Each structure stands twice: as C-alpha cells, then as structure tokens.
Amino acid sequence: MPISTSTATSRRLLSLLSLLQVRRDWPGTLLAERLDVSGRTVRRDVDRLRELGYPIQAIKGPEGGYRLEAGNELPPLLFDDEQAVALAVALRIAVGTGAGIEENAARALATVRQVLPSRLRQRVDALEIAAAGADVQVDTQILVDLSIAIRSAEEVRFNYPGATPSDAVDPRPSRRIQPHHLIVRNGRWYLIGWDPERADCRTYRADRMTLRIPNGPRFTPRQLPGGDVAAFLSARFKGSAGADVWPCNGEVILHLPAPQVVPFAGDGVVEALDQGRTRLLIGSWSWAALAATLARFDTEIEVVAPQSLRDAFADLSGRADRAAQVSA
C-alpha cells in the first residue's frame, strides 16, 4: 500500500527531530544523508519544525548546520513508537517512587494515552505493572534542591531528627554534608555524601531532611568507596562499612527439600543434599539476627559453622525459654 505524501513527511519530521535531540550540532549535509533527502528538503523540514514551536538555530560555517536549542515554551512533542511506549511505562512506574509526583504522573499518563495510536494504546494497556506506592513520601522540592546541590557541588545544611523519642524534645544540631548521590531503594529516597565532621561517607533519608538555606561552600567531589553507589548503599544496609557482604555469615543444614528453601533464602547459597535436606550459606547483620532468620524455616537445623552462630542459637533458646515461662 503506498504511503501518502503527508504521512511520509510526518515520519521524516519525526526522524529529523529525533536526530536533532541526540547530538548538539548537525551539519546539514549529514542530516540529508541520514534522512536520504536533499539539502533543500532538510531546510523545508526545519522550517516546518520551527512553525511547530521548536527553536532550531542555523549554524554558520563551511558546511552549515542546525542546532536544537532550549525554548521558553514547551512545543508539541514527537515520539517514535518505542519512545512513546517507554514514556507510558515510566509514568506508570513513577507512582511507586515516593517522589511526590504520583498525581501529576497519572495525569500525564492519561494525556499520553489519549493521543496514542490504537496500536500503541493496546501495547500500553497490555502492560501489567503493579506500581505499589511508597511507604514514605518525600517533598518533590527537596529532591530538586538536593539534585541541584549535587550538580553544583555545594555543601548541604539540614536538620535531621534522631531515631529516639527524646530527639523530638531535644533535637540534634544541624548537620552538613557534601552530597554525591540521590538514590531510591525500596520506595525510599536516600542521600549519600561525605560528612566532613565525621570524615566518613554517610547515608540519610531524604524524607526526614529539613534543608536550611543557603547551601554551604562548594567542594571537590570525592570517590565513593568501591566506586558503585548501589553496592555502597547495599553494604550499608547490611551493616558493612566496606565490601557489599554481610558481616556475619554461617553455614547450616536444614531438614527441608531445596525447593522449599529457595524462595526464602534471599541472597543465600542453596545446595540440595538429598530429598529432605538442604545446605544453606547465608548472612545477616548480627549473629542474633542470623539465628532468628534461620529459625523462621521452622525445621531442624544443623549448624556447620561457625561457633558464633551456635552461641547465638543458644542465646536465642534461652530467651525463648524465659519468654515461655508463666509469671507468678
């Protein structure tokens, strides 16, 4: 079936706009080559995009060219099929980020869906994405301010409540940190940065931060320990100050078949010994927590190593025995 002239032009405009968005400067001859058209057609298409509100500047030089500048107003947006689907998916996922943009994301998704062609709308509607809302919401402006401070390499001053009720009566003094990364984990936003007073990298929950204005002085960013922000945060959640490993690790044999152990082993290593026994290597942030985690399997447990895990089970057994006693 032949493609109408208007359809071919629309597709070419979309391709031209996509090219202008992926690099700053484009020589006119290279654009014509990429689009398989003449230089005159490129000039006409650029004029059409300008009429639609896109601020495209001409570049002077031996070859000449074009540059897509940032405008004062939002022009009509053009996306190819995959970009449109990706945008819809991202908007659905945004509901669970805890960034305080859930309502706006839902409105934007409704707008995008309304203008999608039927073939793309069916693809988007077929996506089963259960976007569970975050337990804690953070003010969007705080995320914006922290991001600006990270990009500008400026110290952040803030108040941060402690974890005990007494902190509400006698709040801790304001803190300062050299922010490096803003990351979301399990629906909560965390700021990772260098604390000059403690000479250590620290992690703070963004929803508990009250920023103070203005920011502090500029700083030279440091290398995050390990170089990987996700691994650093994971290690801190495991109670490790160094590598992304649990500080307490044990080896046990559970009197359960491996298929019943795997779903609850987390990042542990599972090895099937026979139909009724499974070897499990697993870690936790303390020996008591590791013993309690293993007790949840509700089966006989043989401790292979280390002795610290046996001691933790003995201590846990004593606590359980005392808890089971009836008070006089």
UniProtKB/TrEMBL annotation:
Transport: is it a keyword of this entry?
A: no
HTH deoR-type domain segment(s)? 9-68
Family annotation (Pfam families):
HTH_11, WCX, WYL
Keywords noted in UniProt: DNA-binding, Transcription, Transcription regulation
Q: Which InterPro entries match?
A: CBASS_pafABC_assoc_protein, DeoR_HTH, HTH_11, PafC-like, Tscrpt_reg_HTH_DeoR_CS, WCX_dom, WH-like_DNA-bd_sf, WH_DNA-bd_sf
* Official protein name in the record: Helix-turn-helix transcriptional regulator
Q: Which organism is it from?
A: Nocardia xishanensis
Q: What is the lineage of its organism?
A: Bacteria, Bacillati, Actinomycetota, Actinomycetes, Mycobacteriales
